[in-house]
Amino acid sequence: MPRFPLCKIRDGIVALLAALLLAVPGAVVAQVAARSVTASSPDGTIVLTVSTDNDARAKWSLSRKGKLLIAPSSLGFILTDGLNMVRGFAIDSSEKASGDDTWEQPWGERRFVRDHYDEVLVRFRQKAEDGGRLMNLRFRLFDNGVGFRYELPEQRAFKTMRIADELTEFSIASPGTAWWIPGGEWNRYEQLYQKTPIDGVSIAHTPITMRLDDGTHLAFHEAALVDYSAMWFKRISGQTFRSTLSPSSRGPKVVRDLPFATPWRTIRIADSAAGIVENDLELNLNEPNKLGDVGWVKPAKFIGIWWGMIRGDWTWAEGLRHGATTARARQYIDFAALHGFRGVLVEGWNKGWNHEWLGHGNEFRFSEPTPDFDIKAVTDYAKAKGVHLIGHHETGGNIANYEAQLDDAMKYAASMGIEAVKTGYVADAGGIIAPGDTAGTTRMEYHDGQRQVQHHLKVVQTAAKYHVSIDAHEPVKDTGLRRTYPNWMAREGARGMEYNAWGQFANGPDHEPTLVYTRMLAGPMDFTPGILSLEGHDHVPLASTLAKQLGLYLAIYSPIQMAADFVESLAAHPRELDFISKVPTDWAESHLIAGEVGDFAIFARKDRNSADWYVGGVNNATARDLDLKMDFLDAGKTYTATIYKDGAGATYLTDARHNIAYETRTVRKGDAIKLWLAPGGGAAIRLDAGGSQPRKAD
Ligand code: NOJ
Ligand code: CA
Hints:
By secondary structure, the chain is α+β, with helices and mostly antiparallel strands. 17% of the residues lie in helices and 35% in strands.
């Protein structure tokens, strides 16, 4: 009887196991030491090569559709207490894996998110004489982007990593244009965007957006910035950039015990502007929701006692012009109840506001209202009308003072029925006052350094304990942590509407169509649209038409969205108010249906709670005609379109900014709507599917 040789059986089993491993998604395939490792995205278009060069430096490079995108670029760290982690590396081993999952957002621009990738973990080992450290790199390759992070394992050579700087390089292989704001500047992220050749960038914050001359769109950013300093994107020569971390007063920019992982360094990659906008790269690289049932996180629209202070008519501080009085709060609650706004923001409600914004953060009290603001009476009144106050914690950047009161402050807010708190850190860059190492001392930090990154998470986690959501102003940039902590609903982190109140500082007509493709790639922004009067302080005109104020509700996403004007101005525009009170803040789907970086942006978004669609957006200073195909609508349905568009002759440059035109018509899938966008203009369309009552505002 013929017998199977044993080795044949063994080989057969190995082959079978290998075949099984390859067939199972997520399977891990180990490779042995090699001089280079390659991996590609699921559709094969993006190819990564990880290698070492002649100096034994760790390198990575990318190509897309066969063309070099990122030329070989270095990886590593400088430490404050040991040899640099730069030279002497060899690839020890690597492992491949893949994933394909679809997860649901509790709220957002779209309900379902697909997370589809191939990944490779590359383990580097440094020669003993060069430092003898272990450094792992995990690269995750998607068809529309790449993320990678350092994973520093436990090791004999050191226990704590004191990082002087991270040396991740990005050598962009072909020329193009960049849209960016400077990193480290005094006004944090509140800068006007610059448009320059890529080799004209200095140090930029991320996201930084680029369009290569061949039309490829790139956006560099980071994901899951936790217990680490933010990455600034510093051009070091030609088109080569290197990470530089936000500084710390301690010396090392980051101090972490091993093992730990850095934030992901991310690149969105697409052929079109829409491809970098409709892109969930950073969300996918964040960890899933850690808060469990977050039914208490409420997408909502709100009005507020706010624009009056920003314009200078009222004051935050107590006195004759104090904005936050009991009577005014009642007036705003009445208006909110009448028009279906869930929230009313009240700023200047608490003790500590008796000086200028800057430099007195130690005086703020977060559980003590001013005598002319009867918070109990106001919140009881709100409750009876189904309205919720939005709390306000301006810290002046003094987190030593805020952290000492934090738990009490959130408990107090929750006890007043407050569902969301707007925080604020008004201080120049480097002006965060943090607790020092010994009691009673303080030290200065950056708004995006490791200490402030820790602070933000502490605030979000403490707020979650009391079922309170956070909208942070003067924040650290968004890196997708809303996935893990869905109560971190929004933040500022760019120049918002407030600048338009301040005449010479106004944002200008190009700002919002630039934000869409830059700041907004990071996550929701509390921009505070809806200044229907189109006037700031001293009647200074906004660089916006009336229709653009409505278009902002489609262009700038936030789950909590303000109608920022005085209630009298909102009431003076009943048709626009009707649109604002109906437009949702939580979507089933969102698509950029027309737009180019910095020029214009038109979105189509489908309500998460009805079959209605909304279309609209914003334009820059150049008028344009659009022919918008309604291909996204559901087949077989007839929609009633209520169109708000720039009126004849409208322009942000003259009083014709107020010219708006209205049109109502029926629309079906495949129809087109022609729109003329004025200079500084915009448009907004409600596509009512019928059947369901359009909802009042949340
Ligand atoms: C700046 C914020 O952006 C603004 O919204 C707020 O009203 C003031 N700080 C005061 O906290
Ligand atoms: Ca601000």
